[in-house]
Amino acid sequence: MSWPHKHLLDIESLPAEDLLTVLDTARAFKAVGERAIKKVPALRGKTVVNLFVEPSTRTRISFELAAQRLSADIVNFSAEASSFKKGESLKDTARNLEALNADVIVIRHAASGAPHFLSRIVQARIVNAGDGAHEHPTQALLDVFTIREKLGRIEGLNVTILGDILYSRVARSNIWALTKLGAHVTLCGPSTLVPREFERMGCRVTHRIDEALADADVINLLRIQHERQRQSMFPSLGEYTSLFGLTKARYAKTRPSALIMHPGPINRGVEIDSEVADGDRSVILEQVTNGIAVRMAVLYLVCGGKGPQEIPG
Amino acid sequence: MPSSTLILDGPAIQRALTRIAHEINERNADPASVALVGIQRGGVQVARRLAVLLEQIWGRPVPVGILDVTMHRDDLHQQIAPEVHPTEIPFDPHNMTLVLVDDVVFHGRTIRAALDALIDFGRPARIQLAALIDRGHRELPIKADFVGKNLPTEPADRVTVRLSEAAGPDGVYLEKP
After folding, report:
1. Chain B residues closer than 8 Å to A125 by CB
2. Which of A154, A201, A285, B97 has its Cβ near the most Cβ atoms within 10 Å?
3. Pairing of strands B146-150, B158-162
């Protein structure tokens, strides 16, 4: 088991073996978060920069805590407070961060491919924290980590992803991770948001929710992203709920062991009923806890050097 | 030319561990406050063997923890991130005498990391160090309290300790490059 990459840019380019390395490493880091002293010195003296050009609170805080629990120093660089407002290009910003001797840059950007671009122009390690509608690799890793922890495996499971797939980087990264690890993925939502083209990624696409929920071992609900929808993709939120919301009635018909997941923030009463979100099969808050462990694992792995794994006494 | 020499065979390892167990007994008047902590990976099996021997002497089970020091190492930048193994300390180390156990002591850097890692779990009364093999070449001021065998080596040599969990051929080998 080893991690041969300098960056974490996407899930698409990683073999299943590397995904499992992150998941196994995260398990050990999760235990750190459960101790009285939730901190280890693995990244002591390293500087991590959170470059969040697109606003985000929970992912940024999760990376912040992850870096702190590894004893790294972390600085936040956000769109509102930075020189992007003054017209500085991403390239110049990145070069400036490099001049500050950043070891890792965690980037969230509205443009797909921004992390890949950065990885070509700076020496620092790059971790993609969400780029446009492309990928959100750490979210997918924490989702599969949570599924594996709860159900003991990924292979052979039926995972239904419900909601706004078209605009969702979470969905894309999840589809890559789940299919690489051997799960059967079903996508469901309005046809405008769940186009048939996703069948090419190895998924089953359906626009009938009862069909999507019937045999699901995991139901992952995605938020309706108002901010990404340039024109209205469905008539109203009320209509979305009545056709695709995970209501109590639909929940009652799911498999009794099916996990309910959501990357947050949840729109209660839109994609999910309150009682379902707070129910005993909901692992939404565990996803948040696991997110820190997975991000610790990612930061730890990308900070490794090039030499052979050798632990002399 | 590379060579591999058998340094200790199964019975010799068992004799060395028995002697260490008796030394731990002599040094610690209160068995109830003693716990063993094996360092991942090689030290874990040594600690389990010592626990069996100490139970025969003391007539009571001895708690065994396992400690992974990967996150406390200071050489991450020199190598591909090493595999992280579980740490399990199933007792409260507060006011206990902890015997840290490793198979081979070499530079002493693993022990340094282990001391840091262990302190995060509480404040033990004291920490002692037991090793099956001390091969010298210390880079830090660390000295084992209990040693199975002192083995003179060259820095480039490898010392391999094989301890099977079930019955099987145990052995300590010195490999010359």
Report:
1. none
2. A154
3. unpaired
Contacts of B77 in chain A (CB under 8 A): 303-305
Assign B146 to helix, strand or coil. strand
Q: Which two tokens stand for residue B19?
A: 């002697």
Chain B, nearest residue to A30 by Cα: B86
* Token pair 């004291």: residue: B126
Q: For residue A144, what are its two tokens?
A: 């599969």
Residues with Cβ within 8 Å of residue B29, at least 6 apart in sequence? none
Q: Residue A309: which residues within 8 A CB-CB, separation 6 or more?
A: A2, B79, B80, B82, B83
Sheet holding A125-131, edge to edge: A73-78, A47-52, A104-109, A125-131
* CA distances to A203, A212, B68, B119, B136 from B114, in Å: 47, 50, 8, 9, 18
Residue type present at position B133:
I
Q: What is the pLDDT along chain B (177 residues), one digit of tens a residue?
A: 789 999 999 999 999 999 999 999 999 999 999 999 999 989 999 999 999 999 999 999 999 999 999 999 888 888 888 888 889 999 999 999 999 999 999 999 999 999 999 998 999 999 999 999 999 999 999 999 999 999 999 999 999 999 987 656 899 999 999
SS3 call for A109: strand
Q: How far is B32 from chain A (nearest CA, A)?
A: 24
Strands (E), chain B: 3-9, 34-39, 64-67, 97-105, 126-134, 146-150, 158-162, 171-176
CA gap A284, B95 in Å, rounded: 39
Whether the ipTM is more than 0.85: the answer is: no
Count, residues in chain A: 313
Quickly tell me which residue has 């874990």 as its tokens: B44
Is the CB of A4 inside 8 Å of chain B's CB atoms?
yes
Can you give the pLDDT at residue B83?
A: 87
- The three-point CA angle A219-A220-A222 to 5° equals 140
- What is the spatial order of strands in the sheet that B158-162 belongs to? B3-9, B171-176, B158-162
Assigned token pair, A115: 């992390």
| Farthest CA pair distance, chain B | 51
Going by C-alpha positions, the residue among A99, A102, A45, A51 that lies closest to residue A72 is A45
Please indicate whether, in this complex, the C-beta atoms of A36 and B106 are within 8 angstroms of each other: no
In whole angstroms, what is the distance from residue A296 CA to residue A70 CA? 7
Place of tokens 């090493």: B82
